[in-house]
Design brief:
The chain is an alpha+beta fold and 176 residues long. The protein has 2 domains: 76 residues, Beta-grasp domain (Ubiquitin-like (UB roll), Roll); 71 residues, [2Fe-2S]-binding domain (DNA polymerase, domain 1, Orthogonal Bundle). Helices cover 31% and strands 14% of the residues. It has a 5-stranded mixed beta sheet, covered by helices on one side. The longest helix is centred in the last third of the chain and has 17 residues. It binds FE2/S2 (inorganic) cluster (2 copies). One FE2/S2 (inorganic) cluster binds next to loops.
Length: 176
Amino acid sequence: MTISISLTVNGAPISASIDPGTLLVQFLRDQLRLTGTHIGCDTAQCGACTVHLNGRAIKSCNILAVQAEGANVTTIEGLAQSGTLHPMQAAFKHCHGLQCGFCTPGMVMSAVSLVERQPELTGDDVRAQLDGNLCRCTGYHNIVKAVLEGAEGMKSSGTASANAAPSATAAASVTA
Ligand code: FES
Ligand code: FES
């Protein structure tokens, strides 16, 4: 049995036929091939699968794809605009806020959502608010630096007060 869903992913309208039990992360990775959204656990703890659902960070391993019916989903692939990194992506690069990079898409998506909700941040705020994103490599120091620098970049570029603008990089329509 399959079920039809329609949603917007990175600014592109998507229609698909899926198994009702498909997780949103499976739909993004396996059907849309948006593999920047990672799977790092099976307990909804690591945050590597974080995407934006209607502008809020969520763990895409923790909801069914059908629950995103009609929603706007932004993945890490939708953050950069016209080849220019989002300020938070640029800050992670500048501050060396990653080593292997496995956690980084989820970290960046959570950080962008955090700054949109709370533009004025301290390091303690970042540590507390991103406790749902685990990194196995960095010791977090440079991640916190990156989020603070990214927050400043978002404020100066005017992206701190709006949800991340999606780009139309995803396939326009997928039917499986
Ligand atoms: S894969 Fe979703 S929280 Fe770990
Ligand atoms: S950079 Fe390797 S898990 Fe975070």
